[in-house]
Amino acid sequence: MKRLGFAWPLLLFVLAHCGSAPQRCPDPQLLVNGRCVDLCDDLDCDDNNECTLDECEVNEQALTAGCVRTNTEDGSDCDARNGPGLCMAGQCEPITGACDSVDCDDGNECTIDGTCNISTGQCEGGQDAQEDVPCEATGVCDDAGNCVECNRPQQCDDDNTCTQDVCSDGGSCDHESVTGRACDYMGGSQNGVCDAQGSCGAAPPTCNPNPCEDTGSDCTENVCIPADGSCSLQTLDAGACNDAPGGNPGTCEAGLCVGLCDGEVCDDGNDCTDDGTCNPANGRCDDREDEPSGASCDQDGGQYCNGAGSCVQCTTATHCDDQTYAPKTCVRRARECAPTIPTTEARAPRSTIFPDSAGGGSAIRARPK
């Protein structure tokens, strides 16, 4: 029998490289039915819209891929049908000159001015500023777009131990005298007690102990009653405190320090805004922002967020595809689906991921748009 020694290296090469599936695939490929596949290869996400950023997003668990689109920044340059344009809410609007004499500045420091829609000449997107934005000389903005002196008692501190600092409902600071509260008299060289005028005077020798013992709470205190020399426990029902749950600032209510977020609801009732969460350090709803364009919603007869806080019927033509042979498009300004005017141009197929019933994986096929 003739030995085929030269064939052994070839046989070992075949066994090593054939018939075995790769265990790992290079990014961005995934293992599908024993093969490394880039699910985005045949998926064309380009919608030919300069005002959207088009990306292919892969679901590694489901082995599917789809297109994700986000609007570019409003005011970005683009090419409209009849000349230069600007991107507005994901659509290229032609520059018509309608905004040449329009000023969207309302002169209010406590509002965020809108921007002029170059198609309509109207200011859009204006809103009230968040609380605590500085305004005028020493004021702050409230949640209604007004410049006030305060929003919470922490902003009314007058550095006077003998007054209780309160922010009224109208947004002004009040400083109420606290009679009998212990204070530092003569620069701290003597124990003192607060009088009815909000000043620190010498403590009467009849109070025992002198000064009265500290309760350890910002919203309760022992005050001296000069008439009989006793210490009386008083509860505060207003003013700032700093021992709310978690050591956070709050407001005194019936002797308890209630956190600034207690009872604060950040839900503005709009599906197209992310309401954020209440910050216990300041009582404001932080991180509030608009949901991205294309996010689902169910308000005002719409289904998709436009990226500017409104719920509309559509933001792209794909939102109007109802799987029928009556094509529709998304009307730019109205953001509503309307029938497309028939043309004789051929329609290009659109790639979509379908389950692969034969192999249990998925395959990319084309179907008519």
The outline comes out as elongated
Ends distance: 66 Å
In round numbers, the mean pLDDT is 77
Helix fraction, binned, reads under 10%
Q: What's the story with the biggest beta sheet?
A: 3 strands, antiparallel
Radius of gyration, taken over Cα atoms and rounded to an integer in Å: 34 Å
Give the amount of beta strand, in percent: 35-45%
Q: Spatial order of the strands in the main sheet?
A: 5-6-7
Total of helices? 1
Uncertain regions spanning at least 5 consecutive residues: 343-369
Helix and strand composition category: mainly beta
Task: Let me know the number of strands.
Answer: 34
Tell me about this structure.
This protein starts with 6 loop residues before the first helix and ends with a strand. The strands form 15 sheets. The protein has a three-stranded antiparallel sheet, with no helix packed on it. The protein has a three-stranded antiparallel sheet with strand order 12-13-14, with no helix packed on it. It has one helix spanning 7-17; strands at 30-32, 35-37, 52-59, 64-71, 77-80, 83-88, 91-94, 111-112, 115-116, 123-124, 127-128, 134-135, 139-141, 147-148, 163-167, 173-177, 182-185, 190-194, 200-202, 220-225, 230-235, 240-244, 248-253, 256-259, 273-274, 277-279, 284-286, 289-290, 304-305, 311-312, 328-331, 336-339, 350-355, 362-367. It contains one helix and 34 strands. A hairpin with a 5-residue loop joins strand 18 (190-194) and strand 19 (200-202). It is mainly β and 369 residues long.
